[in-house]
Amino acid sequence: MSNAFSLLYSYWRTGLSSNSTTECPVNLNAFASLAIFSEEFTEMLLYGPVRDKDKDEQKVDAAVALKLRIDRPLGMDEKHQLTELEVDEIRGTALWNFSNKDYVPRIQAYILANMLDPQIPHESNLANLILDSLIQRYLHGEFVSIFSDTKEHRKQIRLWGTVHILLDFLQEKNSVQFAESLVSIIETERLESTRAYILV
């Protein structure tokens, strides 16, 4: 997933006005691709580690990645090798049991979201489309959770973090509906940490 999205990320960046220069103008095909796959892009904004302690393959993946950084196989740059002190510091932490590569797609998606320009109509329209999709997913109970630190709860936090990134794009014609949706969500959401993100 990380490698595939990284390729899309590099391509989609070329379609955003904030990334363009006189030597490298906006790639309209790249933006069209981002717009076509806006639902998949929205999913990447919510993507992240499951951190399921029962997922042995995650631990194996992390162990291999860690082993490579400790032993530094032939061809690896020395600056990427861990020192004994660094190994001791991460022993017993999440980094010891989990690879961090599952964060990459969401971080890259956040970067793209931050690169959207409210002054460019087609970029503003895309941001509003994503914003509406996030709110609708929440209203339809896609991430209902009654306990903290569950997969659904983490998706809630990611969703509201993304909403805050995109709030500047909210168009006046959509503001009343957005406010009504927000009131409806606040009335039903029970988790304090999620409510804190909504009410910021």
Account of the 3D structure:
Helices cover 64% and strands 0% of the residues. The chain has 200 residues and is mainly α. It is flat, with a radius of gyration of 20 Å.
Short description:
The chain has helices at residues 2-13, 28-36, 38-46, 56-71, 84-90, 94-97, 104-115, 121-139, 151-166, 172-188, 192-199.
Q: Using DSSP, what is the number of strands? A: 0
Question: What is the strand content?
Answer: under 5%
Regarding quaternary structure, what we see is: single chain
Largest sheet: none
The shape is flat
Number of contiguous helices: 11
Poorly predicted tracts of residues: none
| Secondary-structure element string | HHHHHHHHHHH
Distance between the termini: 32 Å
**Strand pairing plus helix content: what structural class?**
mainly alpha
Question: Would you tell me the overall average pLDDT?
Answer: 80
Task: Give the SSE layout.
Blueprint: H1 2-13, H2 28-36, H3 38-46, H4 56-71, H5 84-90, H6 94-97, H7 104-115, H8 121-139, H9 151-166, H10 172-188, H11 192-199
Helix pairs in contact: 1-7, 3-7, 8-9, 8-10, 9-11
Features:
200 residues, mainly alpha, 64% helix, flat
